[in-house]
Amino acid sequence: MDINQTDRRNRGLLWGWTLFVLVVLYLPVVCSALASLSKSRYFLFPIRQWSGEWWQKTTASIEIGMLVNTSLMLAAVVTAISVVLAFFGAMAFARYDWSGRRLFQKAVLLPIFFPQPVLGLALLLWFNAIGVPLSWHTAVLAHLVWITPVVTLVIAIQVYGFDPTVEDAAFDLGANRWQVLTEITLPILWPGIWSGMLFAFLLSWGNFPLSLYTAGADATVPEWLYNKMVAGYTPMVPALGTMSTLAAAGALILGGLVMRLVQKRRA
Q: Buried-most residue among 77, 136, 157, 175 (CB within 10 A)?
């Protein structure tokens, strides 16, 4: 077998494996979308009668509107706070060298390795012990404990590739610390910060274990989906699940377009 035939075979195997992985990953999403477009209350394949009734009921539901608002508010607050904390945390252990750097790095990243249900239960017990009522505000703190380390890692990747001599050159040219931060540091680290924002928002939006234990009466979209799957199933479940998946995919695509636009303008 010559080299060209070997290359064609390897490319064929690669494409075949890629297709298999995509089918395994997205087949449940496709089934969920099909279930939401069926007039039947339960998913039967092949679908005998198509209908957009469940999508209309989902978008018109006041309860689901409140769930979406709570999830959006929770994700937005978590994103804003986690990105700020992660930026300074990434700078602390990836940019500067100090005596407690390694210990700080381990302490920051430790929550990632805790199972989320265990972490959520621990936070629930802590909130009850200090007498804090559960709401979406306590869920914000719970999400921050787990999401901030993830965002810190994402931003730290960009910080490790940062050349500190660029800042030194700006100082030598007369720039103050604020100018260096806003005109040098942040623009260079912008790809990592933007990626961290997307990670934080999507991880918070779709988080179920931490919200289940710490959100109290302020239910989120993942909690509602779980509760309806356990009892009181309705085709609005796959409809809302499909909408959430499409919205997350749209956010990723929009984020990529914004990143490319910013890079083109800088170029």
A: 136
- Joined together, the tokens standing for residue 229 give 């799957």
Considering the chain, what percentage of its residues have pLDDT values greater than 90?
A: 8
Closest residue by Cα to residue 216 from 98, 102, 74: 74
What is the tens place of the pLDDT at every residue in 55-84? 888 888 888 889 889 899 999 999 999 999
The C-alpha atoms of residue 156 and residue 192 are separated, in whole angstroms, by 8
Got the DSSP string for 22-57? HHHHHHHHHHHHHHHTBSSSS--SS-SSB--HHHHH
Rounded Cα gap, residues 96 and 63, in angstroms: 48
CB contact set of 47 (below 8 Å; sequence gap of 6+):
34, 37, 38, 40
Q: How far apart are CA 220 and CA 167, in angstroms?
A: 43
Query: ω before 46 within 30° of 0 (cis)?
Result: yes
Rounded to two decimals, the pTM is 0.82
Query: In 80-97, which positions are buried (b, 16+ CB within 10 angstroms) versus exposed (e)?
Result: ebbbebbbebbbbbbbee
Three-state SS at 95: coil
Interatomic CA distance for residues 211 and 219, integer angstroms:
8
129-165 in b/e form (b: 16+ CB < 10 A) is: eeeeebebebbbbbbbbbbbbbbbbbbbebbeebeee
CB atoms within 10 A of CB 45: 9
Write the DSSP string, 136-166. Answer: HHHHHHHHHHHHHHHHHHHHHHHHHT--THH
Mean of pLDDT values over 83-108: 81
